[in-house]
């Protein structure tokens, strides 16, 4: 696909709906009471979400874009944590064919899905990792957003990385959610969708006042409007106008991708009131995504997503959580 803002917006529209009956897999002998899919499950928080859900008796499909990394992760969880209820399936959230293949697999084998954890993400930055280490930024400076100026020295905000980031963090989440929705609608235990968000998504981080106010008003948003905003963002990036146009300057693309994840969560929660659909900030966790600068363990970071994946039927929906606490950010 052509690497332009238009292609980024088209990335969502062009996704064909999966043809759920095209490939048959053997039916599972026992259909699990609760079946979960976790995206980006081969490491970091996603791997821990898989482990914690499987420990709670959920049958987990650990997915990863790389077959080898995913299989190795699933094998070690199965053996070290003694979790036979863990299955691997390849899933690249940027690839329509891969998403369709997962939907077909679940449809033929299980005929339903109960939990979807949209965890896969990238930073949208080309980082000079040695330079970053040398800056020795403490967690407080990082999470407050005050590090933005310092980071200009070591972070490159390239158009290609920004494009990939939006295509993974937002369009990837949307692509997977849309493909698996028909199966979530057939959930026997009550469908749950958990979208991984971030502190970077919070509206106090958005300098552009008009957009900040708009982001508070869910009534004006749908997927088309989100795409239009992302297209403007990419255009401003291409034209070197991010700061002037009032976009967040600490990890700009990542922040914007998570702001729209929050919107998408609220849109979907309104559209499917019978499901519990929420987004969560896992905390500042020591993983590759944040160059291992975080202070929490992946085990701690997974607690919020896992709690939301296991919400009772009368639990909240359309809400934002800071780890396990519901907070008002819009
Ligand atoms: N760590 C934090 O402090 C922090 C803070 C706020 C929010 N979060 C959110 O928490 C979630 C997990 O992040 P993490 O910290 O655990 O990061 P991580 O360790 O870097 O893991 C990210 C995962 O996403 C996968 N991924 C990337 N692109 C993908 C694609 N196209 N298709 C499928 N999988 C893909 C990665 O696979 P590969 O191994 O193949 O790259 C990896 O498994 C993310 O949504 C992140 O935004 C993290």
From TrEMBL:
<feature type="region of interest" description="Disordered">
    <location>
        <begin position="1"/>
        <end position="20"/>
    </location>
</feature>
<keyword id="KW-0521">NADP</keyword>
<dbReference type="InterPro" id="IPR002347">
    <property type="entry name" value="SDR_fam"/>
</dbReference>
<dbReference type="InterPro" id="IPR036291">
    <property type="entry name" value="NAD(P)-bd_dom_sf"/>
</dbReference>
<dbReference type="Pfam" id="PF00106">
    <property type="entry name" value="adh_short"/>
</dbReference>
<protein>
    <submittedName>
        <fullName>Uncharacterized protein</fullName>
    </submittedName>
</protein>
<dbReference type="GO" id="GO:0016020">
    <property type="term" value="C:membrane"/>
</dbReference>
<dbReference type="GO" id="GO:0016491">
    <property type="term" value="F:oxidoreductase activity"/>
</dbReference>
<comment type="similarity">
    <text>Belongs to the short-chain dehydrogenases/reductases (SDR) family.</text>
</comment>
<keyword id="KW-0560">Oxidoreductase</keyword>
């Amino acid at each position: 696909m052509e690497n332009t803002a238009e292609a980024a917006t088209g990335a969502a529209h062009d996704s064909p709906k999966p043809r759920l009956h095209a490939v048959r897999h053997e039916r599972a002998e026992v259909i699990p009471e609760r079946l979960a899919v976790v995206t980006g499950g081969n490491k970091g928080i996603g791997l821990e979400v898989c482990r914690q859900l499987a420990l709670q008796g959920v049958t987990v499909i650990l997915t990863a874009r790389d077959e080898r990394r995913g299989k190795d992760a699933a094998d070690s969880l199965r053996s070290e944590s003694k979790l036979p209820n863990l299955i691997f399936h390849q899933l690249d959230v940027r690839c329509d064919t891969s998403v369709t293949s997962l939907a077909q697999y679940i449809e033929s084998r299980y005929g339903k899905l109960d939990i979807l954890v949209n965890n896969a993400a990238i930073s949208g930055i080309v980082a000079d990792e040695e330079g970053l280490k040398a800056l020795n930024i403490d967690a407080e400076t990082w999470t407050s957003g005050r590090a933005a100026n310092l980071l200009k020295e070591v972070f490159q905000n390239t158009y290609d990385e920004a494009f990939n980031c939006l295509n993974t963090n937002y369009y990837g989440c949307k692509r997977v959610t849309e493909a698996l929705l028909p199966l979530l609608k057939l959930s026997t235990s009550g469908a749950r969708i958990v979208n991984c968000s971030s502190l970077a998504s919070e509206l106090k981080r958005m300098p552009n006042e008009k957009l900040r106010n708009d982001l508070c008003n869910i009534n004006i948003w749908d997927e088309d409007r989100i795409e239009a905003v992302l297209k403007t963002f990419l255009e401003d990036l291409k034209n070197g106008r991010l700061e002037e146009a009032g976009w967040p300057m600490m990890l700009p693309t990542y922040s914007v991708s998570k702001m729209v994840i929050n919107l998408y969560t609220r849109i979907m929660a309104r559209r499917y009131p019978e499901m519990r659909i929420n987004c969560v900030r896992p905390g500042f966790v020591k993983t590759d995504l944040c160059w291992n600068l975080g202070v929490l363990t992946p085990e701690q970071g997974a607690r919020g997503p896992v709690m939301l994946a296991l919400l009772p039927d009368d639990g909240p929906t359309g809400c934002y959580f800071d780890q396990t606490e519901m907070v008002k950010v819009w």
